[in-house]
Design brief:
Oligomer: single chain
Mean pLDDT: 96
Strand content: 15-25%
Low-confidence stretches: none
Number of helices: 19
Number of strands: 34
Distance between the termini: 77 Å
Shape: globular
Bound molecules: cytidine-5'-diphosphate
Radius of gyration: 28 Å
CATH superfamily of the domain at 424-465 and 630-786: Aldehyde oxidase/xanthine dehydrogenase, molybdopterin binding domain
CATH class of the domain at 424-465 and 630-786: Alpha Beta
Structural class: alpha+beta
């Protein structure tokens, strides 16, 4: 009789997130939940000026407050060689100001006290002598010859220019433009916005003065990398630094950089011999920690009159803030922006990018985006829509005509990517069918005749995720490879240690499902550990939708490595040759005799109790994965809107999302990721904006000024899928975490522009607030209708 095995709830099953058990009971363990004996509290004094010379700081009144243990200044940090630190882009950043402040909200001093309120109150008693300087709040102004030099402390830095970067073939692109019947261009600004995680950044630094052991609990999406940076900055031995990222209340790229607060709290703990906690408040988080986007873009597309796309040019100016601090794979100064040709078979593409320092907070983080792909996707999808209008071709038809075809994969793009797989037309057809595109166009004609402004827009995005292959991808020289470690206990239960960190994505659930499929252990019998540098394999962390293509792959590979030994053990137990054992659906059986079977539990027991001579005991392995390529998720988002000509308010009537992320490990979690991303995409398109006045004051430092969509404003999403597996990923999966935020802003904006088209409006920069839309309607001279 064959042993009956219940169905393994592995890849493809909508297993409930195991993390939710603690989260919905309020039992998560976030930084602010951590309380250590004798712990002190740190608060940071931030500059009210965007650009000002620091003439002096008087800390005596603050130091005299009962309960204040120390006041830390840049001068004190400098005495320990810690006034400046390296950034993840190879620049330097002030930890506490010693010479001049370079953005509003920059860290000037810190108070350490026995109570968090004492620390915060004492900040007001620090007397700082600032001498204001002219602030620079746009990258265009930063690059003018008479602009004040922001980074005057940097040797050899004579202007505010940071980098120039080019990609693609300029001559071939010029030739394509020379052949064109039509050239369509677009100037657009992707505004500075904020990841706004629920939990702000913070840490508890605990340096044991007796042993020198530093344990730092930190809101970090990349604890291993941070540990290495700390070892290099502070000169501490790396094995004496343990970074623990406990539960993290959302990351969204905001928690990748190294923040001065982490460094000051650790230095304070080292000097005082006590644990020190630092937690940002909401305004501090909004004003000073890693922002996203802030890209000024110019795009041009060359086409034949029949709609054939011939070439694409993109030039960008990136506002990097006062320090170049974004984490980009180091060969690519603007991340993977050169995916800008998107889903189209564009033979010639040229990208040129420049970065500038301004008196604004640093950032440029991968906010729900794989390294600047959001900006690229937005530019191409807006350009395609305008090209369709210019040529009087339906926007869906123009896309269809130029899509890379399924038989062209693997497809080599003009900027050097090798797209792994795709079927763009099928995804678009489903989106159009589900939204009822033909009917909507007919209704639009009628609505226009009635003086109403109705629009339908779409975006057919291609993303690129999974950085990455070691030959091209590193952060400050550390290769972007990740690891998984798997140990099966004698009773057949398992522990999986992964180098990624989950901040709500559900890795504790999904990566267990990968092991389940590969070995036949139910996911609930696999404990997944992450976020502790002492207890997990080295890796570059979780951001840019890289976990599934890197750590997910490492997890499949480590399971297969364990399975190789399991097969040997099964052969031993069943007294057949190794080659006679086959594994299928959780069963190790004899080929041709399926009732002669061993379960993984029986095999695991034998690994410790009954293994052949010459074999090592135990059943475990570790695997570091070097991806052969990136993965390329794609999809089409279609949106129908109605705009009120009297107020500029636009309402989403329908939102249809078709996503293809290859094989879905957990379909329910994938849908959750897409819902989150679509909401963020809507927020960016409709309302989120960090802006600055002429003096460099940040507007958007609280949730009254910085608007996030709530459930009230968020449209209803209708989700569909296609499945085009990645041929090189061990289980055919691609990432999905970022796709919806990458793809959807253009779909919303395209729909609104489509509605306003009869008025001659061809562009409005995000966010499309009702005021801006109303102004565009007024500028176009009226309320529409034809
Ligand atoms: O790097 P990050 O975890 O943010 O993004 P991801 O790799 O796209 O994964 C987000 C979540 O979706 C994880 O829990 C993945 O395991 C899950 N996922 C999935 O179930 N199937 C896919 N094809 C892709 C992701």
């Amino acid at each position: 009789m064959a042993t009956e095995i219940e169905e393994i709830r592995g890849v493809g099953h909508s297993v409930r997130r195991v993390e939710d058990d603690r989260f919905i009971r309020g039992r998560g363990n976030y930084i602010d939940d951590i309380r250590l004996p004798g712990m002190l509290y740190m608060a940071i004094l931030r500059s009210p000026w965007a650009h000002a010379t620091l003439n002096g700081i008087d800390t005596s009144a603050a130091a005299a407050v009962p309960g204040v243990i120390a006041v830390v200044t840049g001068e004190l940090m400098a005495q320990h060689n810690l006034a400046w630190m390296p950034t993840l882009s190879g620049d330097t950043q002030a930890v506490l100001v010693t010479d001049k402040v370079r953005y509003q909200g920059q860290e000037v001093a810190a108070v350490i006290a026995t109570d968090p309120y004492i620390a915060k109150d004492a900040l007001q008693l620090i007397d700082v002598d600032y001498e204001p300087l002219d602030p620079i709040v746009t990258p265009q102004r930063a690059l003018e010859t008479d602009a004040p030099l922001i980074r005057d402390e940097k040797e050899g830095q004579t202007d505010n220019h940071i980098y120039h970067w080019e990609n693609g073939d300029k001559d071939a692109t010029d030739a394509a433009f020379a052949e064109a019947d039509t050239v369509v261009s677009l100037d657009t600004f992707y505004p500075r916005c904020h990841p706004a995680p629920l939990e702000t950044c913070g840490c508890v630094a605990d340096v044991d003065s007796a042993t020198g052991q530093a344990t730092i609990y930190m809101t970090s999406q990349a604890p291993h990398l941070i540990r290495t940076v700390f070892a290099l900055v502070a000169g501490l031995p790396e094995e004496k630094i343990r970074v623990i990222s406990p539960d993290i209340g959302g990351g969204f790229g905001n928690k990748v950089p190294v923040y001065p607060g982490y460094v000051v709290a650790t230095a304070a703990s080292l000097l005082l011999g006590k644990p020190v906690k630092w937690i940002e408040d909401r305004s501090e988080n909004l004003i000073s920690t890693g922002f996203a986007r802030d890209f000024h873009m110019h795009g041009e597309m060359a086409l034949k009159s029949d709609g054939t796309m011939l070439g694409l040019r993109a030039s960008l100016l990136a506002d990097e803030g006062a320090f170049h601090a974004d984490a980009q794979p180091s060969k690519f100064k603007v991340g993977l922006f050169h995916i800008v040709s998107g889903s189209y078979d564009l033979p010639a593409v040229h990208v040129s990018a420049d970065g500038a320092y301004t008196n604004k907070a640093p950032g440029g983080v991968a906010y729900r985006c794989s390294f600047r792909v959001t900006e690229a996707s937005y530019l191409i999808e807006r350009l395609v829509q305008n090209a369709a209008y210019e040529l009087d071709i339906d926007p869906a038809e123009l896309r269809r005509q130029n899509f890379i075809q399924p038989d062209q994969f693997p497809y080599k793009s003009a900027t050097g990517f090798e797209y792994d797989s795709g079927d763009y037309e099928t995804a678009m057809n489903i989106a159009l069918d589900k939204i009822g595109y033909a009917d909507l166009r007919a209704e639009q004609q009628q609505a226009r005749a009635d003086g109403k402004l109705c629009g339908v827009g779409m975006a057919s995005f291609t993303e690129v995720v999974g950085a990455g292959p070691h030959k091209d991808y590193d952060i400050i020289g550390v290769k972007m490879n990740d690891g998984s470690e798997l140990r099966i206990h004698p009773t057949g239960k398992a522990i999986l240690k992964i180098s990624s960190i989950t901040q709500g994505q559900g890795h504790e659930t999904t990566f267990a499902q990968i092991v389940a499929s590969e070995l036949g252990i139910q996911p609930e019998d696999i404990k997944v550990m992450h976020g502790d540098t002492d207890n997990t394999p080295y890796g570059l962390g979780t951001y840019a939708s890289r976990s599934t293509p890197t750590v997910g792959a490492a997890t499949a590979m480590v399971s297969r490595r364990v399975r190789e030994k399991a097969v040997k053990l099964a052969a031993h137990l069943l007294e057949v040759a190794e080659e006679d054992i086959e594994y299928e659906a959780g069963r190790f059986s004899v080929k041709g005799a399926p009732d002669r079977v061993k379960t993984i539990q029986e095999i695991a027991f034998a690994a410790y109790t009954d293994f052949p001579d010459g074999m090592e005991a135990g059943l475990e392995a570790v695997f570091y994965y070097d991806p052969p390529n990136l993965t390329f998720p794609f999809g089409t988002y279609a949106v129908a809107v109605e705009v009120d000509p009297e107020t500029g308010v636009w309402e989403v009537k329908r939102m249809v999302a078709v996503d293809d992320c290859g094989v879905r490990i957990n379909p329910m979690i994938v849908e959750g990721q897409i819902h989150g991303g679509l909401t963020e995409g809507y927020g960016i398109a409709a309302m989120e904006l960090i802006t600055f006045d002429e003096a460099g004051n940040c507007i958007g430092t609280n949730f009254m000024d910085y608007l996030l969509p709530t459930a009230m404003e968020t449209p209803k999403f209708e989700l569909f899928e296609t499945v085009t597996p990645s041929p090189h990923h061990p289980i055919g999966a691609k990432g999905v975490g970022e796709s919806a935020t990458v793809g959807s802003p253009a779909a919303y904006v395209n729909a609104v522009i489509d509605a306003l088209r009869p008025l001659g409006v061809t562009n409005i920069d995000m966010p499309l607030t009702s005021a801006k839309v109303w102004e565009a309607i007024q500028a176009a001279g009226g309320s529409g209708g034809s």
